[in-house]
Every structure is written in structure tokens, then in C-alpha cells.
Write a structure and sequence with these properties.
The protein folds into two domains: 2-93 and 101-120, no CATH class; 139-228. It has six helices and no strands. The chain has helices at 2-78, 105-120, 142-164, 171-184, 189-201, 207-228. α1 (2-78) runs parallel beside α2 (105-120) and α3 crosses α6 (207-228).
């Protein structure tokens, strides 16, 4: 009888331990499932954030490429180097060939803005195609430009000649510079017109344009000589 009670006590203790172990195992199982679900949700959120960043980066790359292409087109129309024109836009270098740069979107925008400022130097210039020809209304204005430049240069030469009549130590130098300015005054409008045509229309003055400027300058100089005689 005593052995039976001992066996029953051991059986009850075993059943209790089994129930306790099952409860612990079930609780551990639920905790593990909850942790796995949390990790899965965290991984899904990380994947969504990565996709969002990748889409934003791809959009930024497309925008930067488009802006770089526009700036290169502006550079082709600007013709920074006389007589030279940039060719087609270069292909982007492979990502593995470039050093890693820690730049945000604001830094990229600032870099593009600096490039645009260096190309334009102010408001964008007007470009009338790639033919490099002056508009039809410009050549008739070239004689007036030559006359105006000649008048200014001749006036400066007259002022230098007037200073040369004074008793100054550099009177001889002033007289020489004044005569040189007189002789060069009909050609004073050529560099002005050349720079204007190049920066405004990416064009060069031909022989006819230079002749019109010199003709206007000679006419103005003759009129000044007759008026002052």
C-alpha cells in the first residue's frame, strides 16, 4: 500500500513537471514566433525603405543627367574657345571607376549651379541656331558702330593732343599716343563688334562686316577733321 502511494505521488509529480515543461515550451514557442514576426516586419520595412531610397537615387541620377545634358548643349552654343566647339557629351564613367563621394542632393544641385554660372556668366545668351551667321538687321548697323567707336577714340586723341600742348614732362609721349589713337580710330569698332557677334550669336565677322565698320569709322573721322578744321 505504501509503495502504491509512493508511485502515485511520483506519477503526480511527473505529470506536474510535464505540464510545467509544456507550458514553458509553449511560452518559448510563442515568444519565438513573436520575435520572428517582429524581425520579418522589420525586414519588410527595411526593404521598403531601401526601395524608396533606390527609386529616389535613380530619379536623382536621371535629373542630374538631364541637367548635365542641357548644360553641355548650352556650352556648345556658347563657344567659349574661339574657333572651337565641344563635341558630343561624354558618356558617364562607370561607378567602379569613380571615387566614393559623400554628397547629398543639395551638394549636387549646388555643383550644377556652379557649372551653369561658369558657362553662362549671367543670364543665358540668345543662340540663333548653329549656322554662326549674323542676323540680317545687324550688318546695316555696323557702320554706325564703327562711327561711334571712331568718334570716341578721336575725342580721346584730341584730349591727349590738347594735354601735349601743355608744359608737361610727358608731352612728347602724349602727342605720340594721341597721333596713334587718331590713326587707329577708324578700326576701333572692329574688336567691339567681333566680341559682340561672338558672345551674342556665336558668329564671326566676315570681310564685308569689317569693311562696313572701317567705312563708318573713316566717314566719322573725316567729318570730325572737317568740323575741327
Amino acid at each position: 500500500m505504501t509503495d502504491y502511494r509512493n508511485l502515485m505521488s511520483e506519477l503526480a509529480a511527473t505529470v506536474t513537471r510535464r505540464a510545467t515543461n509544456l507550458a514553458v515550451a509553449e511560452r518559448a514557442y510563442h515568444d519565438g514566433m513573436a520575435a520572428a514576426a517582429a524581425e520579418l516586419r522589420r525586414a519588410e520595412e527595411d526593404a521598403k525603405e531601401t526601395d524608396r531610397r533606390a527609386a529616389a537615387a535613380a530619379s536623382a541620377v536621371v535629373e542630374v543627367d538631364r541637367e548635365a545634358e542641357r548644360l553641355w548643349s548650352d556650352l556648345q552654343r556658347t563657344r567659349v574657345w574661339p574657333g572651337h566647339r565641344p563635341g558630343a557629351a561624354p558618356e558617364p564613367a562607370p561607378a567602379t571607376a569613380q571615387p566614393p563621394l559623400d554628397m547629398d542632393d543639395d551638394a549636387s544641385v549646388a555643383m550644377l549651379a556652379r557649372v551653369a554660372h561658369r558657362i553662362h556668366g549671367g543670364p543665358p545668351r540668345i543662340a540663333l541656331g548653329d549656322n554662326g551667321k549674323l542676323p540680317a538687321l545687324v550688318p546695316p548697323l555696323l557702320p554706325f558702330l564703327g562711327a561711334a567707336a571712331t568718334a570716341v577714340t578721336a575725342t580721346l586723341a584730341s584730349a591727349l593732343a590738347a594735354l601735349a600742348t601743355l608744359d608737361l614732362p610727358v608731352a612728347g609721349v602724349l602727342r605720340l599716343v594721341g597721333w596713334l589713337a587718331y590713326f587707329a580710330s577708324p578700326f576701333a569698332g572692329i574688336p567691339i563688334a567681333t566680341r559682340w557677334a561672338r558672345r551674342r550669336w556665336s558668329a564671326r565677322l566676315d570681310t564685308g562686316g569689317v569693311a562696313l565698320i572701317v567705312l563708318g569709322g573713316l566717314t566719322a573721322l573725316s567729318a570730325l577733321i572737317i568740323a575741327l578744321a
